[in-house]
Amino acid sequence: MPITINRPGPDEYPETYQHYMDQLPEGDVMYLLDKHSTDLRHMFRHISDERAEQSYAEGKWTIKELLQHLIDTERIFTYRALCIGRGDKQLLPGYDENLYAYNSLANIRLLESILEEYEQVRRSSLLLFRSFTSEMLDQVGNANGKPVSVRAIIHMVAAHEMHHINILQTRYLKRKD
Questions:
Q1: Which residues pair with 91 in a beta bridge?
Q2: Domain over 20-172 is classified CATH 1.20.120.450
Q3: Segment 128-145 mean pLDDT
């Protein structure tokens, strides 16, 4: 039986994520995560590898690096949700997103390969998230020095991605919806 993953309260995630969470619409977060996957595939269907290796400004990530950032962040957040949901009380480390982007070498990969990786990671994340019980969703752990619930992490994945989809549309693709 599917569980509804209620929106977390502000005390369940770091204050630095409030801006992201404010962008997240009300409703089923699992539906939103599934929809994002379809939306991203649609956004990228006419983008060439050459175009995907460009950024919107000097010193900013390329489209490929931004997509790889979404993948890396989802993997890290999903790992945190798994650890906390399984009762692990260890302090989970943060990560340097710019170091990860630089070392990903995303720009030497084909965009199609990165998109395929994104879709596989998303499918895996959704399966994990659907496996959590209500009790697991309520578990709170410590990630990057801050308390966070499993429920909040799932919403943070969606909110973080929504933030970057907006950046893709407005700064990289110059698309206004």
A1: 142
A2: yes
A3: 97
